Queue: 4 jobs
Job 1
Amino acid sequence: MSRRPYEREITSEWIFRHPRYLRYMVREFSCLFIGGYALLMVVGLERLSQGPAAWQGFLQALQSPASIAFHLVALAFSVYHSVTWFNLTPKAIPLPFISAAHYAGWVAVSIAVLWLAGVV
Amino acid sequence: MAKSNKPLVWGPFAAGGTLTAFLTPALIALTLLAGFGQVPEGLSYERLHGFAAHWLAKVALVVVIGLSLWSAAHRLRITCYDLGVRADAAVAALVYAGALAGTGAAVLYLLRI
C-alpha cells in the first residue's frame, strides 16, 4: 500500500494578488540579472585570456543595443537587490544604524571600484 | 539528529547576496560605460590583463563570480518553487551544477592569463 500525501497545488497566479507579492517576485527575479552579469564576466575572462584582439571584440560587443539594454535593466535590478538586501540587515544583525552603515559601505565600495578602474 | 545540508547551500547564498549587493551595481556601471564607448582605463587590455595576472586578483575574481552565480542559482531555485515548479531536486541539481560549471570555466580562463 503506498502512502499518498496530499500535495496542495501551487500555481503562479498568486503573485498578482497583492502588490507586496509582486515586489517580492521582482526582488527574486533580480537573480537572473545578477547571475547573467556573472556569466558575462566569465565570457569576458575567456576573451581576455585569448589576447588583445579578442578583448577588443568583447569591448565592441558591449556597444551593441542588446548589450546596452541588458546592462540598463541589470543595473536597475541589481540596485533593487542592494536596497532590499540592506533594508533586511536589521533582521539579521539587530544593531542600531546597521542599514545606514551598509548603505555607507555600498557608496564607499562603489567609489572604490570606479576609482580603481580609473573612472573617477 | 538528522543531518542537513541546508547551511552548505544557504551560507554561500547569504555571502553572495551580500557581496553582490555591495559590488554588482558598480561593476555593471563599468561595462555600461564601455558600452557607451567610454572604456574605463582599467578595462584596457594591458591594465586588465596585468590585474588578472596577479594570483590575488584571480582569487578575488573567482570568489566574486562563484558567489554571484551560487546566490543567483539558489534564488532561482526558490523562485521556481514559488512559481509552482514542484520538481525541486531536479531544479536544484540543474541550477547548482550551472553555477559550479560557470565558476569552473572562470578558473580555467584565469589559469590561461
Job 2
Amino acid sequence: MSRIRVGSPIPALSWAAWIALIAIFGSVGNAGAQDAANVVDRSQVVISERAIHHIMVRHWPDSPAAGAGKYAPGMTADLLRQMVDETVENGRSRENTNGRPGRIYEYDFGHPIGIKVNGRPAYRLRVVVNDRNELVTAFPF
Amino acid sequence: MHLDYRLSENWDSDPVFLLAADETEFRYYAFAGDIILRKAQTDLSTHWGWVPLVDFAIGLRDIAASIEAGIAAARTFEFTESDATLEFERLGAEITVRSSYAPGKIVLPSTEFRKQALDFGRRLDMELLSRLPELRQNAAYQALKLSGLSD
C-alpha cells in the first residue's frame, strides 16, 4: 500500500480525488443555503424585545408606516423568530452596506410572506444582524 | 440641489436609551425622520417617517468621499427598512442621483454634492446635540463624528 509522506508531492490523481471530494462534501454542507459563503456564522440569532418592537412598528400587518414592506396578517412574534432563523440558516448572506456593522441575510420562502412597498406579494425576507449576532431588523420585500 | 432632513415627531428621545445606544442603534433605531432631496421638478425626498437620519448622514458622507476620491464611480445607498435605494453616479465632474422610488434624476457638480453631504451631517449633529446635550457623553455617538469626518 502506498503512503503519502509529509512534504512529499501528492500524485496528480490524488489531487483530482481531493478536488472531487471537496466539491462533493463542500456542496453537501451548504445544501440548504442560498449562497456559497460557508464562513458566515449562521448560529441562532439573538432576538430582543426591542428588535421585535422595532419590527412591529414598521412592518407588522397593521403598521401604518409608509414605504416599508409588511408581513401577512396573522403574523406573530414566534413566527417571526422562526422566519428569522430559517433566513439566517438558509439565506444568501452579505456584509451590511454603507459601513453599517453586521450582516444581511435574504431568503426566498417560495410563497408570499407579506406585501411589498408597491402592494404586490413579497416572497423574500431581509434580516439584518449586528456584529454580536443580534437581530436588528427583518422585513418582507 | 436642496438637501435637508425632517425629524419625525415620534423619534425615540428616551435619554436612557440614547446615552447607552451603540452604533447599530444609532444607525437603525434613533432619530428617525425623512430626507428632503430635490432639485427643480425632481423630488427624491422620502415620505416614510422612519429613515434613521444619523445613518443617512454617515452613508451620504462616505459615498461622497469615495466618489470624490475616485475609489468608486457609482455607489448605492440602501435604506434600512426597505429595498429602496438611492443611486449615485459620477460622470465627469458631475454626480447624477436617482432613486428606486421616485422618477427623475438630479445632476449636480461633484464638489457641491460633497459639500452638501458634509453640511447635512454638521447640521444634524448640531441639532441633535442642541436637543440632547447628553449625547456628548455617548462614546458611540461621538465616534460617528457627524461633524467633520472625511474633511
Job 3
Amino acid sequence: MIDILSWVFLLGGAFFLVSAGIGLLRLPDVFTRLHGAGMADTMGVALTTIGLMLQAGLSLVTLKLLLIWLFIWFTSPVAGHSVARSALVGGERPVLHPRDPQAAAAAAASARQGDAVEGRAP
Amino acid sequence: MMFLVSAIAILVTMGMAITRGFKGPTVYDRALAVNVFGTSTVLLIAVIGFLTGRPDFLDLALVYALLSFVGTIAILKYVSYGDLAATRDPDPEEDWSW
C-alpha cells in the first residue's frame, strides 16, 4: 500500500519535473520560462520528497527531507522574483504582453523561425 | 525500481535545463536554468541516497540547496548592479515598466 502511494507521488514528481524541463526549452522568453521553472521548484520537489518520505518511514531521514522541502519551498519564490526583477531592470520585456502589438507579432514570428528574440545583451 | 525511474526523470530534467543554460539568449535565462539545475541536483542527491540505501546523502542535499540559492542570488545581484555590495536601485531614472 505504502509502495503504491510512493509510486504515485514519485511518478507525479517526475511528471512535473519533466514538464518543467520542457517548459524551460519551449517557452519564448525569460518571464514565461519562469513559469516552467516554478513547476520543478514547487510540485516537482514536493511530490518527490513526499514519495521519499513514505519510503523512509518515521525517522530522522523524514525530518531532513521535510527541511529540504521547506527550504526550497521558501527560496524558490525569492529566486524567481529576483530573476524577473533583474531581467526587467536589465532591459528585458515580456514578448507576449508588449506595449506595441505590431512589434509583438514580429517578435513572435522571429521566435518561431529561430530560437528566441534576438540577443539583447544585458 | 521507483527510485531509478525518479532518478532518470530528474536526469532528463537536468539535461533540458543545462541545454537552456547553454542556449539561453540572455544571462537571465542562464541564471534561471542554473537555478532549476540546482534544484534538480538536490533531488537527485536525495534519490540516489535512497537508491544506494544510504540516506546520509540527505545532509549533502540540504547543504547544496543552501549553496545553490545563495549562488543564484549572487549571480543575479552581480549582473544587475555590477557590484555585490551595492544597496541602491540600479538606475532609478529609467522607466522599466512596460
Job 4
Amino acid sequence: MPNARELIKHFIENEGHKVDAAPPDDAGVSELLFRTRGQVFSVTTTEGDDTAFSISTAYEIPDWAREPAQNTEALDRVHNEHPDVVFTLAHDGSLFVATLDESAQSSQELVHGFWLLVARLRDAGTQAIEDIVDRTESKVAAEKFINSFMMGGGQ
Amino acid sequence: MIDPLRPIELALAEEGLYFTRDDDEDAYRVAFKSEGDRYFVVSYRDDPTFVMIGSGWALPVGIDPIDAIDVANRLNVRKKFVKTALWEEESDVLFTVELCVNTTGEVRPHFGRLLNVLRDTASEFFDQLREEDDEEP
C-alpha cells in the first residue's frame, strides 16, 4: 500500500502535472511541488500519517502594497470568509502563504476532490491579493486627493 | 524540417505539464492533460500557419442536443477565442481555439491564458446545460 506522499505524487502526475518531490526530512515531513494555471503549489505530508496532508501556495505582494499591519487585517478578513484557509505573512511582508489542511477517512480517499481543494485555495488567495491591492490603491488615491485638496488643488 | 509544435512543447514545459506527440503524415499533434482534463494541439503539414488548441468532452446521457446547441451558440456569441461545437452525432462537445500564426512561438506567451479560456468555457457550458436541464418540467 503506497503512503500518502506516493499516492498524492502518483495522482498529480497521472493528472498531467510534473511533480518535484523532496525526500522526507528528519521529522518525516516531505514536500511535493507542482504547477497549475501558472501557480506553484506545495503539498506537505508526514510519514506515519497517511490520511492527511497540507496544501499551500504563495503570493508575492507588490512592493508598493507592502504594509504588514494593513495586510494582516486584509488576510484576517479573507480568512473569516474562508475559515479553512490559513494565511501567513512571510519574508518581511513581501509575500503571504495560503494553506489548507485536508484529512480523509482513508488514504485512498485522500485525493478525492483534490482539484476542488486547489480551486478553493486559489480563490481565497486571489481574493486576498485583490483585497490587499485594492485597499492600497484606494489609500493611495485618497492620499493624493487629500494632498491635492490641502494644496488648494481641490477647488 | 523545423517542428512547428516545438514552441507549444516549451509552453507546456513552462506550465509544468507532461505531453505526448502523435504526429502522422497529415498533421503534427500534441496531447496533454491538465488537472486531469485532456487537451490537444494540432497543426497541419499543408497549412502550418494554422494551429488549433482544444478539448473534447462527452455530453451527459439524456441531454437534449437542441439544448446543448443553444448553450453552445450563446457561448460562441459571447466568448473570445473559443469555438464550441457539437460533433460525433451530437454526443460530444468540442471546445477549440483556432489561430493563424507565422509560428506557434507567437502562441507560447499566451498559452496559459488560452488554456484558461478553454477551461472556463467548458465549465460554463456544463453549468448552463445543467441549469437548462433543471428548469425543464
